[in-house]
Amino acid sequence: MRFDKGLSVRVLVFLFLVIGVMAANNAANNRAPEFELTDQYGNAQSYRFPTPKVNVLIFGDRKGSGQIEAWVRPLYDRYQDRINIKGIAALSSVPSLARGMVAKIFKSQVKYPVLLDWTGNVTKSYQYEEGKANVFVVSPNGEILLRINGAASQAGLEQVIAQVNKFVR
Predict the structure, then answer these.
(1) How far is Cα of residue 67 from the mean position of the Cα atoms in its chain?
(2) Quick one: average pLDDT of 20-47?
(3) What is the pLDDT at residue 130?
């Protein structure tokens, strides 16, 4: 059996290229999508990078909304305005005729701004898992550092806090 050095070099170069592309794709998949949505008060809010603070994005639909407060309250109590916490409501299943009524419900029941994703484009871009709170910790440069889905737990909160503490003094 004869060893072809040229073929071996080409195969190695090919493998390095494939590994490089895979690594680049993985890095791109850890990038938080940028977006603009309107809150229940009619204010448009953009989410673009870089941001001055670390970000915690919490997505929820009707079923998952009951899990959100247990994530938000301890994080807000601990960090106040030192981090950026954004709530995004997954509302693509709401018929267009009911949107005004749903926005009024948000106004009357939730005092802080909640971004309303009527089309589902933002929730899809974050691969939202329905029926659960979806919590993302995103660095100021837009890297998704952590994703946790479901009800808050002590272990989950500790994971979020560990990631946030990398950016908060």
Answers:
(1) 16
(2) 77
(3) 97
Q: Position of tokens 């994080």?
A: 75
Can you say whether the dihedral through the CA atoms of 43, 120, 54, 51 is positive or negative?
negative
Q: In whole angstroms, how far apart are CA 52 and each of 34, 49, 81, 167, 168?
A: 15, 9, 11, 10, 11
78 shares its domain with 104: yes
Which of 104, 62, 105, 112 is CA-nearest to residue 87? Answer: 112
Span of 9-18, 93-102, 135-144, 149-158 with lowest mean pLDDT: 9-18
> What was the pLDDT predicted at 140?
98
Residues 78, 7 share a domain? no
Q: What is the pTM of this model?
A: 0.82
82 and 9 co-located in one domain? no
Q: What is the pLDDT of residues 102-121, one digit of tens each?
A: 999 999 999 899 999 999 99
What is the per-residue DSSP string for 53-93?
S-EEEEEE-TTGGGGTHHHHHHHHHHHGGGSEEEEEEE-TT
Q: What are phi and psi of 38, to 5 degrees?
A: -105, 140
Nearest-angstrom CA–CA distance, 98 and 94: 7
Domain coverage including residue 4: 1-30
Question: What backbone phi and psi angles, to 5 degrees, belong to 19?
Answer: -65, -40
